[in-house]
Amino acid sequence: MVPGFWYIVKFTSASKDDLSLISTHVVAATMTVAIWVSVAGLLLKYLFKDQEAYLLFFEGAIIWRIIIGMMYYSISILIFYLIKYYLNMQEKASRELELQALLKDAELRMLKSQINPHFIFNSLNSISALTITEPKSAQKMVIKLSDFLRYSLGKDSVQRNSLQDEIQNISHYMDIEKVRFGDKMVFTKNISDECQKVLVPNLILQPLFENAIKYGVYESLETETIDLVCQLENDILTLNIHNSFPADSLARKGEGIGLENVRKRLQLVYGNKATMAISKSDNTFSITLKFPSKIKEK
Amino acid sequence: MSTYKVLIIDDEKLARDIIKSYLTNDIETELIGECDNGFEGFKQINALTPDIIFLDIMMPKVTGLEMLELIDNPPVIIFSTAYDQYAIEAFEKNAVDYLLKPYSDERFNEALNKAKKKVGQEKMIPENISQDIQSANPKKEYLSRIAVKTGAKIQIIPVDKIDYLEAMDDYVKLHTMEGKFLKQHTMKYFEAHLPAEDFVRIHRSYIVKVKNIHRLEQMGKDSHIVILNDKTELNVSRAGYNKLKEVLDF
Q1: A48 class by beta-carbon count within 10 Å (0-12 exposed, 13-18 middle, 19+ buried)
Q2: What is the pTM of this model?
Q3: In CATH, what is the architecture of A114-292?
Q4: From the CA of B201, how many Å to the nearest CA of chain A?
């Protein structure tokens, strides 16, 4: 009978509303007690069938047996709930750990390959050139690069930032690239006010912008555009990054590590409530992320 | 005192600016032009015949290295790049120096002086040496595109557009959907640098794209031919047959 209780605990946890939970337990308890009392009753009657006094006592004590049965039921259920709670905690902890590992990985990759070091070295080279001709601009660029690096590298503990902060960081990044590429790059952003405070997984946009620049501006002889649009509707945040790229560039194979990572992170944080959609034409690439603006802390 | 004609090829304006500003301190050089991409660089090198070029590697469409492959009598080259992983290849292509961005004016002058010394020196063409280095080079990165010359222009051919390659003396002829192109290289080079799962050397004179094979036919007792999707027939050597057997698993 005890394994049966475990099933009830496990099963009832799947359904969310309290009423059905309570009624399930009431039914289960009644049934359990009924079986317990009748089986035990028959057994005792059979064992003590010669002892008149005991049988008399037995008739009177049936109510107590029901209460004791109830208590047994309650205690075993309680123990099972504790076990379940403990298991959930463990699962949550391991999930958290996995998330953290992935984030660490993302950060590491950023330092190592994704913010490719060439971005940093090329930026430093631009600064070096500016120090001779336009010291003031050089100083501005140093500050932007520092802010960008501080934000991107110093986010060990925080897993979510406001969209506002994320976009500010992206803007620094784009400003730096703008200094390098000048008129070859046009960046626009359109962010509705209600999006600003929404919490998003940190650095989630970075790989998408790196991608857009890598296949657009880096590969092009003409002007390429990158547009960011953020909207909030029915508690769903929609982020769209749209970029142009030269039509004659070589076909891209697969999604690439950067995009794959973003997909994985969204999956880990939001489960199946997040989507990432890609659409492509001969010379445009568009990626749309949708995920809940409010996340329940599990 | 002679003056050295200098050309700068870099896609970033500020990167060209700093080279220009370092050059102004040097009275022996004359800046004859600057280009912001490899196509333009190729044209200007042929038109202006500079003595020394400063060459970036990662540029849109054509990399500095790809451009260099197509120049018949390259000038003295100083690479100027943020990427360190191309250094071996750069020196194989006879670069005098390899400047890693950002660099100081001292480092710049050192490279420039080396280059000046080399200008006018008889050029040695270490064809064989360079191939030895190539085969010793441990990094196994397959080609994804090949730069070829058509007239005065550069054309970039994605590797997946190649149907098969044919040996032609000092050249290799690339047969593609869009026509035939000649590239100065060896079959051995292509055999080693094309993706091994897609391309098979079926004969001394042929490397064929496996996906493009329509069927394989026996000709004599010991000889075979492959028939490609466009009905082209190519001879298969015995060694080639064995390789096909392995790749196609029959």
Answers
A1: middle
A2: 0.69
A3: 2-Layer Sandwich (3.30)
A4: 25
